[in-house]
Amino acid sequence: MSMLTMNDLRIGVAITHENEPYVVIWSDFMRTAMRKPVMRTKLRNLISGRILELTFKPGDKIPEADLARSKASYLYAQNNQHYFMDQTSYDQFFLSADQLGDQVKYLKEGLEVDVLNFENRPVTIQLPKKVGYLIKESPDAVKGDTTNNASKTAVLENGLEIKVPMFIKQGEKIIVKTDTGEYSARASE
């Protein structure tokens, strides 16, 4: 297990704290007069989903979480549980909405994801950077409504609402950035 320093704690880095895996969801380097610098962080427990705030000092050695990766496909959701199928063993497993965090809103049937396993147990997923979705609802653009960077709200096939350019129509397929939730481009057929 490799050790990290406070300077390594950036968003997305996985660490072990009290024998449980956490991922950094926010970090802020603070330096004040007459004091040593510190790194304030918010960590999400990959097993329970709860948020923990910790402050690290220079010289602190933080164990990196030993997470193994595997591929899986999203199947369905039932009672706050999200079911996946491992693409190698074809075993089905579920993760709670708390474990998945904000990633839940980007899930759709058949989506291929990376699964992060801690001690041979799936604890969370990592979405692809960009995912294609079908526009389920989108109001038609009205002539004269266009100003600089004109956009409208569209509802995607999984129920997610995002801002899209005025030229996007219902039934089209678009690409969405999963890290920001923003429209990226039209999907090529």
From TrEMBL:
GO cellular component, one term: cytosol
Pathway where this protein functions: Protein biosynthesis; polypeptide chain elongation
Cellular localisation: Cytoplasm
The keyword Cytoplasm is assigned to this record: yes
Gene Ontology biological process terms in this record: peptide biosynthetic process
Family annotation (Pfam families): EFP, EFP_N, Elong-fact-P_C
Molecular function, one GO term: translation elongation factor activity
Domain Translation elongation factor P/YeiP central: 69-123
SUPFAM superfamilies: Nucleic acid-binding proteins, Translation proteins SH3-like domain
Keywords: Cytoplasm, Elongation factor, Protein biosynthesis
Protein origin, superkingdom: Bacteria
Every Elongation factor P C-terminal domain range: 131-186
InterPro entries referenced in this protein's UniProt entry, alphabetically: Elong-fact-P_C, NA-bd_OB-fold, Rib_uL2_dom2, Transl_elong_fac_P/YeiP, Transl_elong_KOW-like, Transl_elong_P/YeiP_cen, Transl_elong_P/YeiP_CS, Transl_elongation_fac_P
Family: Belongs to the elongation factor P family.
Summary of the function given for this chain in its UniProt record: Involved in peptide bond synthesis. Stimulates efficient translation and peptide-bond synthesis on native or reconstituted 70S ribosomes in vitro. Probably functions indirectly by altering the affinity of the ribosome for aminoacyl-tRNA, thus increasing their reactivity as acceptors for peptidyl transferase.
Protein name, as recorded: Elongation factor P
